[in-house]
Amino acid sequence: MTTGVATSCPPDLPPGATRRAVSSLDLRIEAATGRDVDTLWAHRDRGILDERHTALVDRHRALVKAETAVSFHRTLLHRLSSGEFPVDAALLQRIDRTVGQLGEAADERAVAERLVLADLEPIESSARTAQPAAGEPMPAADYAALLAIAGGAKLHEHLLTGRMSVATASGTRIPYAQLQQFEALGLVSRDTSHPVHTGQPVALTAPGRAALASSHRSSAVAVPTAPRPGMWPSAAHSRR
Known about the structure:
elongated, 240 residues, alpha+beta
């Protein structure tokens, strides 16, 4: 007797398919890279990630596939034991086989998680290292770039070369690598609902605005200095 339940896992999605990848490590990946996993997958398919992030996305895809297999066998086991089918030797054999398949899928998921972590932890470490220490002044180039983004900016991709850069309302061009650094630090965010070839709006996040304001206040504080020999005294000194 057959139960009439499909036994194979769903086919793999094509690389360009739009889907929300779900795994136990999604939040950590997004926090470390500054991009959601769907965007990372799309950038991987277009070949615009560096080697380290490409390896991470490939590992993550394998993890999602393993997670899907676990969900499939767990759902199948629930259906087999739900009372929908008569209890007989065939059903019991099917349940036993499904339990074994679920165990194998869980083992494969555990291996996939370890491989993702092996690629993710160095990226997390780099992001922490790049984070400026508290009270450390922001580099002038970063301050200027964030200030330009605050006035309005979009990430564009050149249709012929595939090179990506940020164009700001002030006319400043910001390299894509610098944008990625800002994203990893949580200083900026992109509206990924817009395609890159038409321009993805880039905006400061709350931490980005706070960092910009903090750097502005620091630069506005005048540091008193003693006059150099031969300098005319300032008006304030001359009135004393």
